């Protein structure tokens, strides 16, 4: 099957969205499909190799003989529908991109057009159902050979609280709630200075060195796995995700994960309160501190969530399993043509 990922106007960079596209395309190639990325700029992702053909085009119809075409970012919907060949045209929606446009424009310009809608998470499916738009869920899958328990957490001298750092811009930092994490971290260190350490990971230059004890900048996947294996409690307050990937990778290492009860937390597919981790009912500081202190002093509960969390992520399947589900959708719709 000849599959085209449309990135015209979006392009590939060092970010989670691009990584998902590259890994999905590479997996489909390994499964025997002819996969190509249509783009308007060169590939700027340096994290992993891109194995499929990456073609810079001015017009989507410069791509020949596609069997299916997939819009990726919101900016690619229009050009996807402009593809002249009568084939299934999809939009794999991986975020509710309010940084691109407001909600009413998302519905008018993204959901109403006639692409077949695929989302990557329960929270996006539920979000669009509120407006009367159904979709199918295809998750990208995880790398079970890259993220796994290393049995080194027991060597920690203190309880390590981990989180994702972002300082790209005010809007992005706000959606990730980095400042909330840092505020909680500072208060925890004031309360329990001899008990905890704060470790963070990201691609930006860390400014808050007085709060963060260890910072891993632009890590390789091998370095990320070791980082997650040191973390006892991974905390995410993010409120604008599709399917949030770092908490899944932390869970695969058997870290205990704490998230938030938000419409677009991006953790609903795997973080189940009191079963696979903790879902905070509030972002009020004293409440967060209380819940985290319980976990800090209860290693048995942390270990339980670590085991059940990893099991849940394994149940969601690896990349090949999930890309085979995507191919099943394509084959079904091609038969209808």
Automatic annotation (TrEMBL):
Q: Which UniProt keywords apply?
A: Glycosyltransferase, Transferase
Q: Which GO terms describe its molecular function?
A: glycosyltransferase activity
SUPFAM superfamilies xrefs: UDP-Glycosyltransferase/glycogen phosphorylase
Residues annotated as domain Glycosyl transferase family: 174-311
> InterPro entries attached here?
Glyco_trans_1
Asked whether the UniProt record includes Protein biosynthesis among its keywords, one would answer no
The protein depicted here goes by the name Glycosyl transferases group 1
């Amino acid at each position: 099957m000849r599959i085209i990922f449309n990135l015209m106007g979006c392009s590939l960079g060092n970010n989670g969205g691009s990584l998902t596209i590259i890994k999905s395309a590479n997996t489909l190639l390994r499964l025997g499909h002819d996969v190509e990325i249509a783009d308007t700029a060169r590939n700027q992702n340096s994290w992993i190799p891109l194995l499929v053909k990456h073609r810079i085009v001015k017009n989507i119809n410069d791509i020949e003989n596609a069997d299916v075409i997939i819009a990726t970012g919101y900016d690619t919907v229009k050009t996807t529908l402009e593809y002249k060949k009568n084939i299934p045209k999809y939009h794999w929606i991986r975020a509710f991109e309010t940084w691109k446009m407001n909600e009413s424009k998302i519905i008018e310009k993204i959901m109403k057009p006639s692409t077949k809608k695929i989302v990557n998470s329960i929270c996006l499916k539920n979000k669009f159902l509120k407006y009367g738009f159904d979709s199918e869920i295809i998750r990208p899958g995880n790398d079970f050979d890259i993220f796994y328990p290393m049995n080194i957490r027991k060597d920690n001298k203190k309880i390590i609280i981990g989180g994702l750092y972002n300082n790209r811009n005010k809007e992005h930092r706000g959606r990730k709630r980095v400042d909330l994490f840092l505020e909680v971290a500072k208060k925890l260190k004031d309360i329990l200075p001899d008990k905890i350490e704060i470790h963070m990971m990201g691609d930006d230059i860390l400014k808050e060195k007085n709060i963060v004890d260890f910072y891993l900048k632009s890590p390789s996947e091998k370095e990320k796995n070791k980082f997650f294996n040191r973390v006892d409690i991974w905390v995410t307050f993010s409120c604008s995700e599709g399917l949030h990937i770092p908490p899944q990778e932390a869970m695969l290492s058997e870290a205990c994960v704490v998230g938030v009860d938000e419409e677009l937390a991006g953790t609903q597919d795997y973080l189940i309160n009191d079963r696979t981790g903790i879902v905070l009912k509030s972002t009020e500081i004293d409440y967060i501190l209380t819940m985290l202190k319980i976990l800090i002093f209860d290693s048995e509960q942390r270990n339980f969530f670590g085991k059940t969390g990893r099991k849940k992520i394994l149940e969601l399947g690896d990349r090949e399993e999930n890309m085979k589900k995507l191919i099943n959708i394509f084959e079904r719709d091609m038969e209808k043509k």
